[in-house]
Amino acid sequence: MCIGMGFLAHVLLRTAVGRPGSVRPALWVTSAVFVVFFALDPIERRLGLG
After folding, report:
1. Which of 26, 8, 27, 5 lies closest to 16, judged by CA?
2. What is the pLDDT of residues 1-50, one digit of tens each?
3. Nearest of 25, 2, 1, 42 to residue 11 by alpha carbon
4. Single pTM value for the model
5. Which domain of life is it from (predicted)?
6. What does the alpha-carbon distance between residue 19 and residue 15 come to, in Å, rounded to a whole number?
7. What are the domain boundaries of the chain?
8. Contact by Cβ (8 Å): 31, 8
9. Are 11 and 31 a contacting pair, CB within 8 Å?
């Protein structure tokens, strides 16, 4: 979980300081996967699935 948060923090910070081009495409994809991973649990709880 901590590694995923690190990936997200890196991408968000690079984007916030105006350097999104310095983030490699694989890191964007990995970060998007982590966003989905972290969002699944709250979504499942809201829908009563988990």
Report:
1. 8
2. 899 999 999 999 999 999 999 999 999 999 999 999 999 999 999 999 86
3. 25
4. 0.82
5. Bacteria
6. 5
7. 2-47
8. yes
9. yes
